[in-house]
Amino acid sequence: MAEVLVYVDHVDGAVRKPTLELLTLARRIGEPVAVALGAGAEATAAVLAEHGAVKVLTADAPEFSDYLVVPKVDALQAAYDAVSPAAVLLPSSAENKEIGARLAVRIGSGIITDATDLEAGDEGPVATQAAFAASFSTKSRVSKGTPVITVKPNSAPVEAAPAAGTVEALAVTFGALATGTKVTSRTPRESTGRPELTEAAIVVSGGRGVNGAENFHIIEALADSLGAAVGASRAAVDAGWYPHSNQVGQTGKSVSPQLYIASGISGAIQHRAGMQTSKTIVAINKDAEAPIFDLVDYGVVGDLFAVVPQLTDEIKARKG
Amino acid sequence: MSLRIVVCVKYVPDATGDRQFTEDLTVNRDDVDGLLSELDEYAVEQALQIADEADDAEITVLTVGPEDAKDALRKALSMGADKAIHVEDDDLHGSDVMATSLVLAKAIEKAGYDLVITGMASTDGTMGVLPAILAERLGVPQVTLLSEVKVEDGVVTGRRDGDTASEQLQASLPALVSVTDQSGEARYPSFKGIMAAKKKPVESWDLEELEIESDEVGLEGSWTAVDSATQRPARTAGTIVKDEGEGGKSLAEFLAGQKFI
Ligand SMILES: Cc1cc2nc3c(=O)[nH]c(=O)nc-3n(C[C@H](O)[C@H](O)[C@H](O)COP(=O)(O)OP(=O)(O)OC[C@H]3O[C@@H](n4cnc5c(N)ncnc54)[C@H](O)[C@@H]3O)c2cc1C
Ligand SMILES: Cc1cc2nc3c(=O)[nH]c(=O)nc-3n(C[C@H](O)[C@H](O)[C@H](O)COP(=O)(O)OP(=O)(O)OC[C@H]3O[C@@H](n4cnc5c(N)ncnc54)[C@H](O)[C@@H]3O)c2cc1C
Questions:
Q1: Which residues in chain B have their CB less than 8 angstroms from residue A186's CB?
Q2: What confidence tens digit (pLDDT) does each residue in A35-69 have?
Q3: Ligand 1 pocket, A264 CB below 6 A?
Q4: Taking CB atoms and a 6 Å cutoff, what residues make up the pocket around ligand 2?
Q5: CB–CB of A302 and B157 under 8 A?
Q6: Tens digits of residue pLDDT in B81-111
Q7: Strands B83-87 and B202-205, how do they pair?
Q8: What are the pLDDT digits (tens) for B147-184?
Q9: Which of A97, A112, A138, A250 best tests ligand 2's pocket when mutated (most atoms within 8 Å of CB)?
Q10: Which residue has the higher pLDDT, A96 or A192?
Q11: pLDDT tens, residue by residue, A216-240
Q12: Residue A265 and residue A285 in contact, taking contact as beta carbons nearer than 8 Å
């Protein structure tokens, strides 16, 4: 069976969920060969094997963290040359899209970004994408070269499928461009202990209606009662009430959870672009005419300062 | 020595309009107004600020797009860019990101540059990969997704806020920079700016001038193919209740019914 390269997203050896989802999709089109780079790369092998990786190619070098993007492209290209895969898959993130795109130019291949599903087809893998703020669904193919496709989180279930997962060291030679952009300092994001926004099964978001940073604890309390991630609209972020890393929408994160709860958010097209593919959508807004209500499975027209705390209490009571 | 800045700007259908695909599965540009992609205004703004700080700088705005795309160039010129290049050719219709980036790279090389600035993503295709591809094609450092940018003594520095960390980046010119909408509000064109823009030069280049064959671009020359595009059915109207004191409880009941609690 044809091999499929799967680029691994991990933090010091802890594989992030979108990579495991990607292994499910990769198995539909071939045998997954994982590529894990950087510190802790070898530690990823066990979980990757458990989810279907027949082989895990690993490499570590200071270049991966000292310089931007290009060293990782050099490594992925080395893996590509070693394997001659039928496709190259990466979990969608800003950086991974850049890595995939540069690899695609180098190997003379087309690229599809932010796929939400993947199937084997007669002329290679067929990708589903959401277009125009998710008002359209398209099916596309890469028609030249080896398909390079990035896939959005929450696009497939995580399934166990034990395979060999043999670890092999990948030999990487860095090109002249690899050291072009130096990372002179790095400040890790502080963990809130809540799930990662793009991966979370439930997202609870607040907008301008939350009316102040000091009120965001109402949104956080609801999120915590559900084990959810916290999101925010750009209006809330621009006002300085919540960090930009939590922004949902076109210029923020794109989320696709099982449940999305929007409070005090009107539902502008740019916000919808980032959450419209959520399975179940719920909104609380005091304006019955707010466009967000066109999307909801359940909506409450009312003051969030009354509705949200009541909802949180009720959830806590039901969970005992 | 003059700092030559090329800013790539895209002409896109207004996101608040009813965007559709045409029969050949390309973007329908007839029924929705086009405009300069709002995220590219941030690129123009940063170019203007970098030029202000430099002893001597010249800003060229560049677009690849149909006849109407001149509107996007005019807007950028009225914000304060010095001149514009419009790459226009019937054979470009339906180009994917590889074909588009090929044209942009050739045009940038022909124009001459020390610094290329782009937006973070277009508001129609929204791929966010064109900047990285351009850097690869041009063979210059990519300094992308910056929320802060500065150019001094031939060195560009900036801040990139990533998923897990915020990074400080540094590269030597020539380089390619892309900026996010966190980089600072874009200015509005002044009346004086709008009047001045009418006199600024707009060059038109076609594929022949860039020594690109017609089969390297357009639907035929693209490396990806769209097989179908279907409008998602509008979500069926959900239940909407008015809060009369029990709104939170009724919502909890709904969530429990859906097994979220
Ligand atoms: C290029 C571009 C990119 C953008 N990217 C993004 C993006 O990534 N994400 C994003 O969100 N936006 C984005 N925007 C901005 C977007 O257009 C909207 O301005 C923004 O989403 C509005 O945020 P909001 O819904 O919180 O605020 P508003 O539109 O002001 O809505 C606030 C809502 O709260 C309700 N409300 C007020 N008080 C209460 C209360 N006490 N109880 C209940 N409801 C209440 C109001 O009825 C109203 O509906 C972008 C815009 C542009 C031009
Ligand atoms: C809904 C939709 C889905 C698409 N999916 C794919 C796909 O999966 N694969 C694919 O190869 N193509 C795809 N395309 C085509 C692709 O969008 C165009 O080729 C486009 O020019 C490059 O991608 P982008 O606009 O998403 O650029 P991005 O990478 O999002 O753009 C980033 C920046 O590049 C600059 N830029 C982009 N286009 C131009 C231009 N024409 N002139 C000047 N500067 C520009 C701007 O500064 C912009 O801010 C799609 C188009 C649409 C409308």
A1: 165-168
A2: 999 999 999 999 999 999 999 999 999 999 999 99
A3: yes
A4: A 110-113, 131, 140; B 8-10, 27, 37, 39-40, 43, 63-65, 95-98, 100, 104, 118-119, 121-122, 124-131, 224
A5: no
A6: 999 999 999 999 999 999 999 999 999 999 9
A7: parallel
A8: 999 999 999 999 999 988 999 999 999 999 999 999 99
A9: A112
A10: A96
A11: 999 999 999 999 999 999 999 999 9
A12: yes
Residue-wise pLDDT tens digits, B203-247: 999 999 999 999 999 999 999 999 999 998 887 879 999 999 999
Q: Which residues of A touch B121 (CB under 8 A)?
A: 250-251
- The ipTM, to two decimals, is 0.97
Length of chain B: 261
A10: left (phi over 0), alpha (psi -120 to 50) or beta: beta
Q: What is the residue whose two structure tokens read 């909801």?
A: A296
Note the pLDDT of residue B1.
65
Whether chain B has a CB inside 8 Å of the CB on A289: the answer is no
Say if the Cβ atoms of B163 and A94 lie within 8 Å.
yes
Among protein residues, the one with the nearest Cα to ligand 2's atom 50 is: B125
Residues of A in contact with B164 (CB under 8 A): 11, 188-189
Number of inter-chain CB pairs under 8 A, A vs B:
264
